[in-house]
Amino acid sequence: MKKDFKFSELEYIRPDFQGFQVTLEDATKRIQEAASYEEMKKAMLDTLDKSGELEMMCTIASIRNTLNTTDEFYEKEVEFINETAPTVMEANMNMNKAILASPYVKELEQEYGKQLLVGMQQEIDSFNPELVPYLQREGALTTQYQKLMATAKIPFEGETLNLYGIQKHFEDADREKRKKAFKAYSDFYHDNEEEMEEIFGELIDIRNKMGRCLGDENYIPLGYKLQGRTDYGQEEVARFREQVRTEIVPLCEELYKAQAKRIGVDKIKAFDEKFIYPDGNAEPLGDDDFLIARAKEMYHDISKETGEFIDFMIEHELMDLKNKPNKASTGYMTYLPPLKAPFVFSCFNHTIFDMQVLSHELGHAFAGYQAMRHQPIANYYSESTDIAEIHSMAMEQFAYPYAEKFFGEDADKYRFAHLQEAITFVPFGVAVDEFQHIMYANPNLTPKERTYEWHKLEQKYMPWRTYEDDEFMERGGYWYHKLHIFLYPFYYINYTLTTMGAMELKKRYAQNKEEAWEDYMKLCNVGGSLSYLETLKNSHLSIPFEEGSVKNAISYAKEILLEQIKEQ
Q1: How far is it, in rounded angstroms, from Cα 10 to Cα 7?
Q2: For the chain, counts of helices (H) and of strands (E)
Q3: What pLDDT, in 10s, does the model give residues 144-187?
Q4: pTM of the model
Q5: Are 422 and 414 in contact (CB under 8 A)?
Q6: C-alpha dihedral over 326, 330, 336, 340, to 10 degrees?
Q7: 390 touches 495 (CB < 8 A)
Q8: Does residue 556 surpass a pLDDT of 90?
Q9: Of 493, 503, 490, 494, nearest in space to 551 by CA
Q10: Are 281 and 275 in contact, with CB atoms under 8 Å apart?
Q11: CA dist., res. 518 & res. 512, Å (int)
């Protein structure tokens, strides 16, 4: 592992996919001809090292493209990668098949655990050579959507704002200004509705064809496999969504009624939802650099491990958080495995969102940092997506005692608003998931029929949601703003499943900080070496599909919120 590096100085070399294909073919032959377990293992590990180097170059190109989506060099590199990467997938699957067919596979399982083999089989089951042109087209379409979002220029009161910049005004104390800001945001999507309809319509078609290539009726089973789900399926997720409808939706209605009374309106409108207090929401005390400095103090206080982690991130320039023109409108954490380094990307907008970035995305990064130092193989550096969000959402909760560092006397405002948002988000999250199931199961819906399905889901999961003088949103246009629907199909339910784990850890952190932190560290250190259900059990967390689990998971947060709205 290279120790002396800064992200800005890392050299980018175009990935040699043709050379890597030769490497994979050679490794497959070595594995098939291996005369011992050590020979087979060495062939596999040598290839994983080369794969890590190739993936790092792909990741550097992707990060630099999102840092400036108008940089033509990295835009072309991402196009090249999206076009070329799928061409080596068949050779990679052949190597996986050779490993699984090896007479030494039991020894491999004994050393690294069954999840390595389960993951390889899932990759095989998710691939067919016929998928390659579809994967290439999917990459082009998602890049088109991301660039459309990143280059948004929204005129508002003499300024030109991007999608992150306009959202700051959703929290303005002037209700008319909030309404105008929300309408400006809505108008951007309405103005681009036709292009987004075309992109999403083609994505549905392409992805369903991918599913049929693998023998399924549509994309949904493949979508689940690509999320790494091995021990639950659509039925369990549907049961969870129903628990949310019965347990969380009524609580959200109560919270929004209290909010309407608090801010002095008859009924909360969509443009009021982010405005929590009549005298204004909590705002960070200082600028971007101030926030990063306070985050450094916080992570040094939480634990020795988090202190080492934040120093590593700052020293190696592994965070880019400031809002800049042409930066992609997104937030993410990704990996540079050969450097055992996470990378965090976001766009500060001087709202409580900034604190969420410094806890949520850095929670992801801390988990990756730990796994890369505790797991023996790169396959285990990242966990399945349904576990990953527990790390980030729990870290948001662990940050509550430090809110004064960021918000001063408004710290309590932050804590209440953030906890309310954590709960009121869940119905929206399950609506996004159900929407995607409807879309891929009903590909013949017209674009306007697709949007109306979202309108119906808002009535089901967000009955408080109303718009005003906004025909586009009233007929269901709100779904267009959720980039996961375009870029990461069937990912979004993870945020809601993991909210349950985060709320459990919040309760336990209040009851016994040391025990809760120990289980959190287990969650981080185990990486992807266990399945979803095994990982939950290993950290003493409940399974969210089981009857009553949602009610139990949110009980502590519910108690806090209901007590506080009585006092307000």
Answers
A1: 5
A2: 27, 5
A3: 998 899 889 999 999 999 888 899 899 888 999 999 999 999 99
A4: 0.86
A5: no
A6: 130
A7: no
A8: yes
A9: 503
A10: yes
A11: 10
